[in-house]
């Protein structure tokens, strides 16, 4: 099992490329140095027998079957994560995939589309919490392959029940409230499945924002192991 795959080709160089035009440029203002920095993405220049090949850093990591879930989970993110999972399955259905999670959570249905794809595809999917896995992010962390759910020692895991706000006619509000209740019950079932806790224990744990250390999350059954450094020999 490869917890943290290395790059297979060590003859690499780095450069940078922008994600998109800066907002200040669109408005005709002077560039903000902080905004400029935040819009840079590292580029990896790889020396091969056929010459140089350039990748953005995330595409290069995808070649090593590493997927990042970073930031709020929403439709724009979820379809990219799902596409990456399906691509890696098509490339090699028997080789594991690693998902690194640093997320405060987000839209439940967007997160469930990622979760369902993780369960659907053939490759085993390992999950690793770096920073935080809160709300929907914690569901994805728990949804990794049993025995392959990890956390770094200073990460935080937070679970709670879903929330939502609606306005409109009273009958529409009641419909949305009923749907939220169904989603809550479904999320409870997912936590029960992956943590080994009882439904009653899960309901109690998710009643309010419940922050856990990696040690507490491991005891609760949310993760399997806390890792502090790359295992020796884990370089394939």
Automatic annotation (TrEMBL):
The lineage of its organism: Bacteria, Pseudomonadati, Pseudomonadota, Alphaproteobacteria, Rhodobacterales. GO terms for cellular component: cytoplasm; endopeptidase Clp complex. The keyword Hydrolase applies. Keywords: Cytoplasm, Hydrolase, Protease, Serine protease. It is an enzyme of class 3 (hydrolase). Fourteen ClpP subunits assemble into 2 heptameric rings which stack back to back to give a disk-like structure with a central cavity, resembling the structure of eukaryotic proteasomes. The gene is clpP. It comes from the Bacteria. It comes from Litoreibacter roseus. GO terms for molecular function: ATP-dependent peptidase activity; ATPase binding; serine-type endopeptidase activity. This is ATP-dependent Clp protease proteolytic subunit. It is found in: Cytoplasm. The active site is at residues 135, 160. HAMAP family: ClpP. GO terms for biological process: protein quality control for misfolded or incompletely synthesized proteins. Belongs to the peptidase S14 family.
């Amino acid at each position: 099992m490869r917890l943290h795959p290395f790059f297979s080709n060590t003859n690499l160089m780095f450069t940078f490329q922008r994600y998109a035009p800066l907002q200040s440029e669109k408005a005709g203002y002077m560039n903000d140095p902080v905004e400029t920095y935040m819009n840079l993405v590292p580029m990896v220049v790889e020396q091969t027998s056929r010459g140089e090949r350039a990748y953005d850093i995330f595409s290069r990591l995808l070649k090593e079957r590493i997927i990042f879930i970073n930031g709020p989970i929403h439709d724009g993110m979820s379809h990219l994560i799902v596409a990456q999972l399906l691509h890696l399955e098509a490339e090699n259905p028997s080789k594991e995939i690693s998902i690194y999670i640093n997320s405060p959570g987000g839209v439940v249905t967007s997160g469930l589309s990622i979760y369902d794809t993780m369960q659907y595809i053939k490759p085993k999917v390992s999950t690793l919490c770096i920073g935080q896995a809160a709300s929907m992010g914690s569901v994805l962390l728990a949804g990794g392959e049993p025995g392959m759910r990890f956390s770094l020692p200073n990460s935080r895991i937070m679970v709670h029940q879903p929330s939502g706000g609606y306005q409109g006619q009273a009958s529409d509000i009641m419909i949305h409230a009923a749907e939220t209740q169904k989603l809550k019950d479904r999320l409870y079932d997912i936590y029960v499945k992956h943590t080994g806790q009882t439904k009653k224990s899960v309901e109690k744990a998710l009643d309010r924002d419940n922050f856990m250390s990696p040690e507490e999350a491991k005891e609760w059954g949310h993760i399997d192991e806390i890792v502090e450094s790359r295992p020796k020999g884990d370089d394939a």
